[in-house]
Design goal:
Shape: elongated
Order of helices and strands: HEHEEHEEHHH
Helix content: 40-55%
Radius of gyration: 28 Å
Strand content: 15-25%
Largest sheet: 3 strands, antiparallel
Strand order of the largest sheet: 2-1-3
Oligomer: single chain
Distance between the termini: 101 Å
Number of strands: 5
Number of helices: 6
Length: 170
């Protein structure tokens, strides 16, 4: 039989196809079935962020609770008389963790209006650091955290003005 004859190439093609089909049918391990994802279920506490919010509300904002989280039980609400916190049910599927887009909203509502995540974090940290009920350890810790967030000078001055307004009311 010649090396490049039609019969040789046809037999080689059929043998390769046969071996490939057999190898695919003998795959080891379970096949991945779509729709069978792992879910993480719980609750997230959301607080209204303002310069009149209670310290407990500011500290608990964004914490998650449930079987799949470090903290199993949410705190008893309301924290205080003027508390406006609420628990939101969350359900993250394994698909969500690996997607580029996050389920979290980009903006959060505050008494300064809608803020982007980094501005929101800076404002929240500054409110905690300047809260009348916070002890010195908490104040120093949150001031240090706020220093690591890069925000515009205009926004920094707006936040400081908002905090000064609250101090003058007290």
């Amino acid at each position: 039989m010649e090396l490049f004859s039609f019969k040789f190439l046809a037999i080689l093609f059929l043998a390769t196809a046969f071996i490939t089909i057999r190898a695919r049918s003998k795959r080891k391990g379970p096949a991945i079935i779509r729709g069978k994802q792992i879910s993480i279920v719980g609750q997230t506490l959301t607080a209204v962020i303002s310069n009149t919010a209670a310290l407990a509300c500011l500290l608990d904002d964004g914490k998650s609770f449930g079987e799949d989280y470090k903290e199993k039980e949410p705190p008893k609400l309301p924290h205080s008389d003027d508390c406006q916190c609420e628990l939101v049910n969350v359900n993250y599927r394994s698909e969500d963790w690996f997607n580029v887009k996050s389920k979290d909203t980009t903006f959060r509502q505050t008494d300064l209006g809608e803020l982007e995540k980094k501005d929101f974090r800076f404002y929240k940290y500054m409110l905690i650091a300047n809260h009348k009920d916070a002890d010195e350890h908490i104040k120093n810790e949150y001031l240090e955290l706020a220093e690591f967030i890069s925000v515009s000078e205009d926004f920094k001055s707006q936040v400081l003005q908002q905090i000064q307004k609250q101090r003058s009311r007290e």
